[in-house]
Specification:
This protein has one domain. Helix content is 76%, strand content 0%. It has helices at residues 3-6, 8-31, 35-61, 68-80, 82-94, 96-99, 115-142, 145-149, 153-177, 190-216, 224-255, 261-268, 274-291, 294-297, 300-328, 340-363, 365-368. It has 379 residues and is mainly α. It is built from 17 helices and no strands.
Length: 379
């Protein structure tokens, strides 16, 4: 199979889509800055892509033998997105003064809110995470025997740190690029909900990418049982998402403290965001109800549809975390969620995400198509 020729047209189209999206956003910076939509997409795509290898490491550490064909594919998702993640990260760092209300203001006297410390901690954990992700992916790709012998010592020494770094890195992103946008807002559950939601989306993304790799790249070791098992895990994390969403909401609603209620009321009852908030809750709850049926989890096509619904719901959740506080702090003016620039940039970055996967799958085609057979007798 000559993937270069087969996907040449699709790759060119994705490059054009990505270029249009980025250029449309850059044009708006001159007249009506829309940093919020860039931050929304940054925390969304970085969270989903990082979650892929987190899931792989979690399954590998648990010695989930049924998941062997997923080990390299999950690592491939995170590895392929490194260039785009780095580019978006640099853009966000360069624009921090335009969308963080506390940069250069009163909050700068607080060590945690100091712009220099912000840059250092974000950069430190960004580099640490992708270093371990890169090393794990390379070891897995270069040593076929590792999958046959389970978790060997060289991978274990990297797996455990990556699990910890992922949680810390996603917590810091959640603090800095979502929770801190609301003045005086503090939640001990927020960051747990933040990274659990990313893992939830990571499972959904893996289902879609696995289906695409199986269909278009000939990865024959992915079988129906893998989709069923991922469907079970998707159901489990839908429960986690519902629990932590409620746990984050409950104390603020009943405490009714004036410094915290704007976080709720500004989204739930505002003219601009109330309908979007209701849609986000629906897109989160509906998959949980449907996934409770085992026949659904055994149907690959239905799982893919639910995965799309979940990923859209998570994007909307990230949008509601970032955009309302930036508007309230007058860091950007309101524009409809389904606005031209918002759609073009989001679709463009999605095109870049898919493009990075195509390039990586093309480069490692001979390796990912000879994944070791799973031991399906052990679950």
């Amino acid at each position: 199979m000559n993937l270069d020729n087969k996907y040449k047209t699709a790759s060119i189209a994705l490059i054009v889509v990505m270029a249009i999206g980025v250029l449309s956003w850059l044009v708006t910076l001159v007249t009506t800055p829309k940093w919020g939509i860039m931050v929304t997409n940054f925390i969304y795509f970085v969270g989903i892509s990082e979650s892929a290898i987190f899931i792989v490491v979690m399954l590998r550490t648990a010695n989930a033998k049924w998941a062997k064909p997923l080990f390299r594919l999950g690592g491939l998702i995170t590895y392929s997105f490194i260039p785009m993640a780095a580019a978006m990260f640099v853009v966000v760092l360069l624009g921090q003064g335009a969308f963080f209300y506390w940069i250069g203001g009163e909050g700068s006297s607080n060590p945690w809110l100091n712009p220099l410390f912000f840059t250092v901690r974000e950069l430190l954990f960004f580099v640490l995470f992708y270093y371990f992700a890169y090393r794990i992916f390379k070891i897995s790709m270069n040593n076929d025997d590792i999958e046959e012998s389970g978790v060997d010592r060289s991978l274990l020494l990297r797996n455990v740190p990556l699990l910890i770094i992922f949680v810390v890195h996603q917590s810091i992103i959640g603090w800095d690029m979502a929770m801190t946008l609301y003045p005086h807002f503090l939640s001990t559950v927020f960051t747990i909900r933040f990274w659990v939601t990313n893992v939830y989306g990571g499972f959904a993304a893996m289902i879609l990418i696995m289906a695409a790799l199986k269909r278009y790249f000939g990865v024959k070791t992915i079988e129906a049982v893998h989709f069923f098992n991922l469907g079970n895990l998707l159901l489990a994390f839908s429960v986690f998402w519902i629990y932590f969403t409620w746990a984050d909401f409950f104390p603020f609603w009943y405490a009714n403290l004036p410094e915290e209620t704007p976080v709720l009321y500004g989204v739930m009852f505002s003219k601009e965001f109330s309908s979007i908030h209701t849609l986000r809750l629906a897109l989160g709850a509906i998959p949980f109800v449907i996934l409770t049926f085992s026949k659904v989890r055994r149907n690959t096509s239905v799982l893919q549809v639910l995965a799309v619904v979940i990923l859209i719901g998570i994007w909307i959740e990230r949008y509601l975390m970032v955009i309302p506080p930036l508007i309230s702090e007058e860091k950007m003016s309101y524009s409809p969620m389904i606005g031209i620039t918002n759609i073009l940039l989001s679709v463009g970055l999605l095109g870049g995400f898919v493009l990075s996967l195509i390039f990586a799958a093309n480069r490692y085609e001979s390796i990912i198509t000879r994944e070791p057979k799973p031991e399906l007798d052990h679950h």
